[in-house]
Amino acid sequence: MKLEQDNPQHEASTPRLTRVLRLTRLVLHFLWGAALVATVYPCARDGRRLVLKQRWSRQLLDILAIRLDAQLAGAAPGSLIVANHVSWLDIFALNAARPVAFVSKAEVRGWPLIGWLAAKTDTVFLRRGNRGHAKVVNAEIDALLNADKDVALFPEGTTTDGSHLLGFHGALLQPAVETGRPVQPVAISYHAADGRRSLAPAYAGDTTIAECMAAILACRTLTVRLRPTPALQAQAQTTTARRELAHAARGAIAFKLGLPLASNRPETPPGLQGARPSDDGPTSSPSPAPAG
Description:
Blueprint: E1 5-6, H1 16-39, H2 46-63, E2 66-70, E3 80-83, H3 89-97, E4 101-105, H4 114-120, E5 124-126, H5 131-146, E6 151-153, H6 174-179, E7 183-191, E8 197-198, H7 209-218, E9 222-228, H8 241-257
Parallel strand pairs: 1-8, 2-9, 3-6, 3-7, 4-5, 4-6
Antiparallel strand pairs: 7-9
Helix pairs in contact: 1-2, 2-3
């Protein structure tokens, strides 16, 4: 199946004033999120926090004129959601459809404001390149899943432009193997007004966050599609179970997106350069979790 894509330059462009207004509203929205986390979150119950997180994320998409087209209502509570990773918007799209806890790289914890927001909104931080810390993270994920909370991660370990999939790391799928919780693959894609795949939201390669933001603001409208595939479950607690789950999830997402399933190995995460890549290598999201 040939993948049709729009180049951001060729998409209908918004007037400059509209872009400025969107960006201003976005900044104010993040500040509003920080205020909510500081004042409401400490005294709110889990259910209320999830509602706030979902509402805030939907408002963020509305500010950027991004329509959410999602079908995640049928996923079982306490699912380990694995998705392909295209943009920093992926996190907000998932939270707008079904609020979840995220796995993120530890460096995000030190980012001004964003790191604080992430830490307050059920983010699990992973020190990439540290296999011992992966066990600690797995224990945190296990506790969340056993509490019937969904956890989402991006097993490619980095972003792509959406035209292909990298290999999926399997290390953080271990909690699903041990608890018997379902692994829910979700295919994420972005589309222009005419329905063709859009590159505008892609935050990959040498693209800076400023360039990515400018491309998104320039689009009159976008649609983000979240398409689940049938849930997966480990058949037994074997040494290869998480690797088999990672391969199965990658194949399901590739099929849903209409992408060729090339034999790409996972990229070696930062901190493991020089080491042999492995399907069980650490995985994390390069983007922070949103405020509620």
